[in-house]
Design goal:
This is BatD protein. With 588 residues, this protein is α+β, with helices and mostly antiparallel strands. It has nine helices and 32 strands. The strands form ten sheets. Strands 11, 12, 14, 15 and 16 form a five-stranded antiparallel beta sheet that branches. Strands 21, 23, 24, 25 and 26 form a five-stranded antiparallel beta sheet that branches. It has a four-stranded antiparallel beta sheet with strand order 1-3-6-5, with no helix packed on it.
Amino acid sequence: MKLKLIFLTLFLATMQLALAQVRFEAKVSKKKLGVNERLRVDFEMNKDGDNFTPPSFSGFTVVGGPNQSISNSWINGKRSYAKTFSYFLEPTRRGQFTIKQATIEIDGQTYKTLPIRIEVTGAVDKPKDGNNTDFVASENLHLIAEVSKSNPYLNEAITVVYKLYVSPRISVSNWRELDSPKYSDFWSQAIDMKQLKIENGEYKGEPYRYVVLRKTVLYPQKTGKLNIEPLTLTVSVDVPTKRRDIFGGRLYTTVNKTVAAGNRVIEAKPLPIQGKPDDFSGAVGDFDFKVTTNKTELDATESLDAKVLVTGNGNLKLFDLPKLNVPNGLEQYEPQHNERVRTNLTGMGGSISDTYTLVPQYKGKYPIPSISFSYFDLKTETYKRITSDEIVINVKNGPDGGDTVVTSESGGTNKKLVTQAGNQFRFLKLNAGLQAIQKEHFFKSTAYWLSLTAPLLAIPLFLFFGKKRKERLSDISGNRVRKADKLARKYLSEAKKNLGNQKEFYIAMERALHNYLKAKLHIQTSDMSKERIQRLLKERDVEDAISIEFIALLESCEFARYTPSSTSAMQQDYDKASRVIASIDKQL
């Protein structure tokens, strides 16, 4: 009986110790998620505590929380207690991140959670963790990537058009790119979108409004299945609620929604082997080819230009032009490459050329042999070859000597030795007609008297400008103003060059504002949150009005890139930025 009592006492003591052990840990809904998904983090404890401190959640935006829940239950006479702090996080970019340690004080002791590694990948087709509060936004907002062709040839142009569809049930107030696609297996060229235009259309048979956000031309550089990564946006959506105002109007709530265009896969076909020319350099499209010279008759040691030119539509920047071969009697220099290529929805179009400078050394006739250019024609899906005409250069005057190249009847070329006749140096001018220079005495000349009196006349000028310089240096306030204005013009010079080009102007102005802060406040671009900027400016005794105006400029740059703006509005923003930078610099 005593033995049973001892065992029972030991068992109860062990259970009490186990129950008394404090547990504080962090749990996540998943350790790998897409950039368009959300993450839930729970900090759980089995005993109540004080001074809970969450981590900074670097790499994420807190979109919900902290939500606090308490569970207190009795099971078989045993008390179970749990307290949880929950956060909902949204990734800001792809990469590897760490949920750092949270701390809490329980019974005078500080407890910490273990760090958790999180991997954020590209956007997934269907986010696995929905949020009931943004269900309406999810059902009425769609980002679509339209691909012009799913099975192109290698180096054939295809177009990807990104459209944002918005249902009439909701409205969109703002958006920004969260993750841009990386076209690793393509040569890509973005088409400049000068102005965003809202149009009416349909999505799955229902009326929608849509706006084309981006157009990109892609040329596959590999064969097989190639992945087009999704474009990911974070969108501020105004969703109607069941509540109404005092006038009966429906109230709206703003939801930040992340949408992605989804992965698109194309099958790039290799070019056919049959009929492929040996000198094929990868040209795909519809082209014309010719070789021209700016002159065919000239004298020795004069120069002429020979141009190898390809015009048409296709992958103009992605192949090499054939080389020009010339006879020995023509001295050839390295060609100057020139590209006049425009890119639109059909691909690249225009011309590329190599211009050679040729200099004949002796008189005679020099044929420039014909050369060939081959390309793959997408219309007929066959290889085509274009051969240039032979060009004969006639050098009329010059020294006799060396080899003169002539054309044989069979179309080939052979060399014939030229017999030297007469004086082969007759082209040199032996009588130069030089004249002696008359001597002029410097003493008592005009130059002599000017050099003597000029230093005396310059003394009053030196005194005058020295006085002005001293007054300028003593003007401390004026110097600060001039220095600040000069600094503002320096940082905003690029923006001024792009006045009239809305997108480039606001990108340049935003970069100028960031660079100015980096130089003055010694912070990196990744640390430039609006709250941090405002706090640092306040610590440097910058007036609140100027600080608020600076933040408003940054927000204006973000919004104006996606909304229409006139040249006069850009000029006003430029003047405002100059004034704000100058004011901040004076106060700093």
